[in-house]
Amino acid sequence: MTTHTLVVGGGISGLSVAWALLQRGHRVTVLERGQAGDESSWAGGGILSPLLPWEYAEPVSALALRSMAAYPGWVAAIEAASGLDAEYWRCGMLALEVAMPEQALAWCAAHAMAAKRELPAGLRTLSPTLPLQGEGGNRVWLPGVAQVRNPRLVAALRAAVERLGGAIREQCPVIGVLAQGPRVTTVQTAAESFAADSVVLATGAWSGLGLAGLAAMPQIRPIRGQMLLFRLEPGALDTILYRNGRYLIPRRDGHLLVGSTLEDAGFDKATDDAARRRLHEDAAEFLPQLSRLQPVQHWAGLRPGSPDNIPVIDRHTDFDNVFVDTGHFRYGVTMAPASAELLADLMEGKAPVLDPAPYRWQAALQRNWTLER
Ligand SMILES: Cc1cc2nc3c(=O)[nH]c(=O)nc-3n(C[C@H](O)[C@H](O)[C@H](O)COP(=O)(O)OP(=O)(O)OC[C@H]3O[C@@H](n4cnc5c(N)ncnc54)[C@H](O)[C@@H]3O)c2cc1C
Predict the structure, then answer these.
(1) Is the pTM of this model over 0.85?
(2) Residue bearing the CA closest to ligand 1, atom 20
(3) Residue 373 pLDDT more than 60?
(4) How far is the CA of 333 from the centre of ligand 1 (A)?
């Protein structure tokens, strides 16, 4: 019998679970409060790696590295189904002023992640004041790091889900559920009710808010990130740059993203001049030409923040047929394929490739919240 799953939330987490379940023969309906992919999944940068991968807990690395390996094939399948280009680009990432570069290189070697001390070719436009030269440069070049243009990936994923027969219902805020014993039978929106065999909650930064009849994941909270966008000539920069919490992401068409802030400011998506100035000044320290340009766009998004950046991918604590895929914090685009695979395995009772223990609901409750860099 084909099972019908309702996925609540149409960001990259919800859409990638929908895509995984459809490929396994499930029937899927995504219920999205606004427009699919318009929240954090639109606002992010699309770097497909933790920024300094050696600084994270092993559960982050395990999920990220499995996803990073899967990404080329995963994107290719989505592009083939949708006919849309997600702009996957293995452009590499250069991290500057790395605190302990030898340890970073050793971590990369132990995790089969390509890493070098040499500079990539073609960085002539960088500021001469940057600490790039000589052995003292403390830099690590990660040539295998890729990016996607995340709004385009989400558009492709959305179209692929529909191509495989998934339904996406927008402007459809879920307000609560009805249950019989240990199972949810009905999901209620403001306008109508949906029957379901199973439910996936992928509500991003809003996962910490309860729905009527369904406990919230108390450890997830919104962490605002502001970004700037500049327009340069194509080819002005062809690798991601990172230094002291700031990064520059070049797109192939010359657009350049500068990010980002980490702000514990509730559900407020406002931008402010102080952050714009800080981001702009920091970006001009990488590329002096940016000091003469004005950003063409400035926005903020709400990351689904979680303790230690470890997401919750598990059965809901209260019901047998409700599952969660949330709390990916800074790396939800990176972690999407492996998170969806893990959740789909758990839903189908299959032994997952990754150890599911660190991503359990209870494991998240035992962690303490600190806002990392
Ligand atoms: C500035 C910034 C930079 C980032 N850069 C990167 C990066 O370079 N690489 C990377 O991997 N990640 C990055 N991220 C993080 C990444 O964007 C997120 O981790 C990821 O998008 C989370 O996806 P999601 O689907 O869980 O959440 P979202 O995209 O926020 O989707 C959740 C969806 O649920 C919907 N929803 C909520 N409540 C309800 C309800 N009751 N009923 C129906 N729908 C509901 C929302 O409307 C929303 O569309 C960045 C994020 C930001 C903000």
Answers:
(1) yes
(2) 332
(3) no
(4) 8
